[in-house]
Amino acid sequence: MTPFETRSSPVKRIAVIQGEVRTSADPDVELTTVLGSCVATCLYDPVARIGGMNHFLLAEPPEHQRSSGDFDEHYGLYLMELLINRMIGCGAVKGRMKARLFGGANFYHTIQQIGAINAEFARRFLQQEGIGLVNADLGGTCARRVHFRPASGQVRCKNTEAKAIAAPQPTRRPPTALGEVELF
């Protein structure tokens, strides 16, 4: 059976939004998310047949928050640790975990490249933790929809190519506006 063929039991789709982590060992569960500059990590243990996904908006908190430990679910640093720990809590072994990374697009040419920063952080984090990166679809200018079967580690990613655009400009007064106001 191919990873996404029709099954005898219905697929249970669970959306993973920014700041979330989901794990499962249920072969009928499919975790889904939509990404732009955010990054999603699909992590799985092929022996325990447990997997999970996170979805982070920013890579790391500013230094003052990192040193105090006062940061939250918006950051990859928090969500990567949380994903690993939840999987271990479900019976996975860190040394067997495999990863796939998605997202990290850069839509604007003139502002900070948040997607590239997120992608680099995710790669570096996995390397530091000794978790093998099986596949990555990162960067570019396209949005992505990811479907992940955590129990098997199977993934489908659909890219929607979009042209990079300039950063939004402030609204300006039309040249024909005279600035007059009529009172009644």
From TrEMBL:
This is Probable chemoreceptor glutamine deamidase CheD. The keyword ATP-binding does not apply. Belongs to the CheD family. HAMAP family: CheD. Gene3D superfamilies: 3.30.1330.200. Its EC number is 3.5.1.44. It comes from Alteraurantiacibacter buctensis. The keyword tRNA processing does not apply. It catalyses: L-glutaminyl-[protein] + H2O = L-glutamyl-[protein] + NH4(+). The gene is cheD. Keywords: Chemotaxis, Hydrolase.
